[in-house]
Amino acid sequence: MIYYSTKDKKVTASLEEGVKRGMAPDGGLYMPQHIPVLTRKELEEIKNSNSLAKTAQVIARRLFGDDIPAVALEELVEDALNFDTPVVEVSEGIYALELFHGPTLAFKDVGARFMARLLQYYNKGNEQQVHVLVATSGDTGSAVANGFLGVPGISVHVLYPSGQVSALQEKQFTTLGKNITALEVAGSFDDCQALVKQAFADEALRAEMTLTSANSINLARFLPQSFYYFRGWSQLVTGLATTGQVAADQMAADQVASHQVASNQQDVNPLVVAVPSGNFGNLTAGLVAREMGLPVHTFLAASNANDVVPEYLETSKYTPRPSVPTIANAMDVGAPSNFERILNLFGHRHDRITQHLKGYRYSDDQISKTMKQVYATKGYILDPHGATGYEAAREYIAAHPGSKVMFLETAHPAKFPETVKEATGVEAATPERLKAFAAGKKQTVEIAADYAAFRQYLDDRNN
Ligand SMILES: *Cc1c(COP(=O)(O)O)cnc(C)c1O
Fold this sequence. Notes:
single chain, alpha/beta, Rossmann fold, six-stranded mixed β-sheet, five-stranded parallel β-sheet, binds pyridoxal-5'-phosphate
């Protein structure tokens, strides 16, 4: 597969170049030149598969099969996706696709684990260590650090602002040891990001050491996220969703047969997917899944107060701006990096985008209220991010009675104990692996928010 830059279709890369570079040299994001359309047989295979890994095998073969030998690709997928993404019915017509059963209890595990193994594959037999730099305000650092933990030939350096991430988040990337180093920066998240950017721009440094970015624009983090949309859909149509009197959805079944028709006609009872969004990597992966033949008609983009995309959908004006802090903080993004990919997918046509994408935005009060109500009436504890998806689903169904909406539950509620307690009055049971992190001992390298200091640290690491 060839990947092209969203800024210029003539700027292309192989999968290997794309995953190693992260961003295209012209500052664009990589997109696959031909999004493969799954055959009926492949969709059947997905419907009959009983795990995320098995579903992913079918899709990975089509996306990456030209670049990686079958056996190696199968092993990579099996190893990366060693957990499932179950669908749970939360209330009538509203289903949670739970993406928090991975090692750091958030959906970013999927992309981070896949990317780590892909990089390892491409670095085999290479003497030189690959150094992954990642700046984090919390969640990305833990998913990337844990995704790369123990992967041979790769060292990860996580930069985070001292005192500005929650204690639990900090534990998830400062206690690991092995090939993971946490750099506690005396500064802000923006300082951390600036240090990483400066390192990537430092040609002298790059001549000495192989540097890679593992942020969410990397195609190896973004594309694997399409896997779980299919996994969610297959559980819904086969009636395997938990608590499911999920009527085998005849509509969706018909759509399998002719997705082209389904996506062009007004469905009476279409499958709709709600995606809590920040940088919009997750939602873009859903749109790619749809191009591959996933029978979804409408996506609901659920935002917190950082609502540049809902605003664009309503007004056709895109106005990126500084983010404001909210209780769904992993979605506090004022200039979503993957928006460019969405524009690209739809040929920059607002009318086409709004056919398939509806925007919703929620204040902290509304998010909290939703968490409270859903717990009180259904006994299901939402995390603050998933709550925006749930609320978008509820609003959509109120306007389109009889619809089925699957929303992405992007993180486990136990990751946000204070917010959950305040909204619901209870504490989400903490999974064992989260407890294990909490018990670990924090180990960090403290550095000033100063490039000379960071450069010195990297030089020392390289020797
Ligand atoms: C990163 C994150 C999001 C936002 O995902 P995008 O792909 O950036 O839109 C939503 N919820 C949680 C819990 C996250 O960690």
